[in-house]
Design goal:
This protein is of the alpha+beta class. The chain is built from 7 helices and 15 strands. The relative contact order is 0.19. It binds 2-oxoglutaric acid (AKG) and fe (ii) ion. Pfam families: 2OG-FeII_Oxy, DIOX_N.
Length: 295
């Protein structure tokens, strides 16, 4: 039987910043994942975001498709449109999702966020913007690595259907993947399903109060694989599930290059420098390849 994977717990309200930083470093070295408690996002707001997410995904498909994900990756993605693990035989991942990206400086229509109208979902936009800003406020936490001038950050509402459990046939809520960017902050609704590949048959604790934080691939590249971007997936358990992911990605023009402190003669850089936007575009192209085949 699957056991519980105990991840390190970081208390964001601790006044001892040096110990907190040490704990985070250790968690990133060992697991690539940790829980963040006392993170400053009020439970009431989190509750409203989950409620807004449920209301959005309960709209009829044609209403959701009016907000279909645009070229700037803002908006709605239906089930099966993406396959995080392209090696699987399945037609795609079961989840549907909704992306909200940076709010300002996007005069171009194709880069704009898409919002349900006030008549359909009153205060929806306001709630999501508030959460987005709250999650971004912690930006100075990772500022020291020097990549957070105008970061790209995406809020993504995720909905996993209650369809029959399919993971045995290669169908997953979200198939195995690593996240692309710097870090991800994940709020869960208390329903299990997330599986972290550190110990294959162990699940992280289902903990509503904590944000699950994990290292992404760009941070792994910066640190020359010292920090681990750990493989994870969401099983199709047969239970309906909602989660809210906040992906922190660097400024598009940022050159992601092995940090001096993470290289030595014995341990040279494992990756060539890459421009953040080029890297992220290529990753997204691979993830949505199954959508192109279905079209
Ligand atoms: O919903 C979850 O628990 C995980 C989602 C996830 O890993 C992702 O969207 O990258
Ligand atoms: Fe992920």
């Amino acid at each position: 039987m699957a056991g519980i994977l105990e991840l390190p717990v970081v208390d964001f309200s601790s006044l001892d910043r040096a110990s907190t930083a040490k704990l985070i470093r250790q968690a990133c070295l060992e697991y690539g994942f940790f829980y963040l408690v006392n993170h400053g996002i009020e439970e009431g707001l989190l509750g409203r975001v989950f409620e807004g997410s449920k209301n959005l995904f309960s709209l009829p498909l044609d209403e959701k498709m009016k907000m279909q994900r645009n070229e700037g990756h803002r908006g709605y993605t239906p089930p099966f449109a993406e396959k995080l693990d392209p090696s699987l035989p399945s037609k795609g991942d079961l989840k549907e999702s909704f992306y909200i990206g940076p709010m300002e400086g996007n005069e171009l229509q194709w880069l704009s966020n898409q919002w349900p109208s006030e008549e359909i979902l009153p205060y929806w936009r306001e709630t999501m913007v508030l959460y987005y800003e709250k999650a971004l406020l912690d930006e100075c936490f990772f500022e020291k690595i020097g990549a957070l001038h105008k970061p790209m950050a995406f809020l993504r509402l995720l909905h996993y259907p209650d369809s029959a459990s399919g993971s045995i046939d290669g169908e997953f809520g979200a198939s195995a993947h690593t996240d692309y960017g710097i870090v991800t902050l994940l709020a869960c609704d208390g329903v299990p399903g997330l599986q972290i590949c550190r110990e294959k048959d162990e699940y992280p604790r289902v903990w509503r109060m904590a944000l699950v934080v994990n290292v992404g691939d760009l941070l792994e590249r910066w640190t020359n694989c010292l920090f681990r971007s750990t493989l994870h997936r969401v099983l199709a358990t047969g239970l309906e599930r909602y989660s809210i992911a906040f992906f922190l990605e660097p400024n598009s023009d940022c050159l992601v290059e092995c940090l001096d402190s993470c290289r030595s003669e014995a341990c040279p850089p494992r990756f060539p420098p890459v421009r953040s936007d080029d890297y992220l575009k290529e990753r997204l192209r691979i993830t949505y390849a199954s959508e192109e085949h279905q079209a």
